[in-house]
Task: inverse folding
């Protein structure tokens, strides 16, 4: 349901602004992403009535696509080479356990990396992580829903991981490279990703993008205690609702209600979303 809410905001805001929606499959982590997940995602979007303007299901099914991150290895390697010419990039062999020993919870995404490998002189090679040194200081940006924001990425997370030790490109690096090359000028995502925005803006600037996209961070659908929904913790997925006979219009209306786009649940079509956003 949380993914439906994100789609509602993306298609609603794009419709209100006469924009185009790009579908990108962010399967950069090959340990967790499988072809069957891609097929299910495309089927669910089709069932809900969401049709992207770029990165269409037909493009994915035709074979390798520049909208599928796992097909873009050479693009990311070239971007890393460009970045290495402009910023301090170095090899890092630290495990999560190592980072946890530097202070804090090793599995907390906001644990700050201390820079322990910065002067280690390790060679950049496959089988070892890669980081970029971030300069201290504030990054200021506006959020379309939350207003003016100030973050200090160096203080938040330390030097940013670009590729992990098993060769997976990280979310931060892949989306920054893709947003630039695909000319994304508006990023709409959940507010759980708000803390990552400053570091992505700084990374984009290091890669040569002077004017980053605008950002909108929308509310999440949460359980009691403020924990966001997740299939990993047993929350109902779209497939279960489909099997129960719930129509897509009811699923979309419920997601819109739970994130504040509607004052009460009612059935919705994707074409209704632009009007809701404009009215709000």
Result:
């Amino acid at each position: 349901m949380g993914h439906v809410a994100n789609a509602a905001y993306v298609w609603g805001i794009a419709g209100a602004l006469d924009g185009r929606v790009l579908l990108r499959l962010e399967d950069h982590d090959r340990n967790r992403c499988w072809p069957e997940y891609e097929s299910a995602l495309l089927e669910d979007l089709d069932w809900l009535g969401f049709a992207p303007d770029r990165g269409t299901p037909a493009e994915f099914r035709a074979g390798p696509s520049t909208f599928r991150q796992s097909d873009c290895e050479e693009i990311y390697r070239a971007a890393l080479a460009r970045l290495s010419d402009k910023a301090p990039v170095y090899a890092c062999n630290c495990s999560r356990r190592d980072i946890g020993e530097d202070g804090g919870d090793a599995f907390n995404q906001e644990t700050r990396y201390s820079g322990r490998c910065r002067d280690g002189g390790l060679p950049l090679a496959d089988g070892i992580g890669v980081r970029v040194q971030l300069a201290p200081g504030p990054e200021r940006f506006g959020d379309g829903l939350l207003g003016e924001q100030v973050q200090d990425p160096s203080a938040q997370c330390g030097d940013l991981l670009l590729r992990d030790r098993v060769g997976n490109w990280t979310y931060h690096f892949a989306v920054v490279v893709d947003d630039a090359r695909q000319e994304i000028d508006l990023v709409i995502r959940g507010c759980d990703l708000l803390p990552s925005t400053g570091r992505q803006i700084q990374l984009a600037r290091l890669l040569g993008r002077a004017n980053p996209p605008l950002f909108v961070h929308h509310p999440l659908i949460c359980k009691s205690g403020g924990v966001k929904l997740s299939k990993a913790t047993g929350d109902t997925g779209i497939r279960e609702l489909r099997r129960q006979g719930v129509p897509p219009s009811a699923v979309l209306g419920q997601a819109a209600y739970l994130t504040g786009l509607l004052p009460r649940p009612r059935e919705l079509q994707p074409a209704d979303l632009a009007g809701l956003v404009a009215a709000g």
Residues 72-220 form a domain with the Rossmann fold fold (CATH 3.40.50.620). The longest strand covers residues 139-143. The beta strands are 89-92, 129-132, 139-143, 147-151, 160-163, 186-190, 214-218. Residues 103-109 have pLDDT under 50 and may be disordered.
